[in-house]
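BACKBONE STRUCTURE TOKENS:
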Amino acid sequence: MLSIKTVSLALGLTFAISFLVCVLWGLSLPESMHMHQFLQLVLPGFTWISFGSAILGLIESFLFGVYFAVIYVPIYNRLNRGQPE
């Protein structure tokens, strides 16, 4: 059985770290290689790039990870309940 708290924290941090990597990637490479259009599509209110927008994107990324865990863990636990180990 998976713990929803553990998986939520793990996925939230994974998504937040991935967001930071995307932002650092965009700041260090030419505009043709940026991810800012994708980030603006999937993160409501995010614009490229200001401090407030970066904080908003980081929070939203973390919450998306938590959201996926809240959906995934009960499904996994339910499907795994009847499986022999």
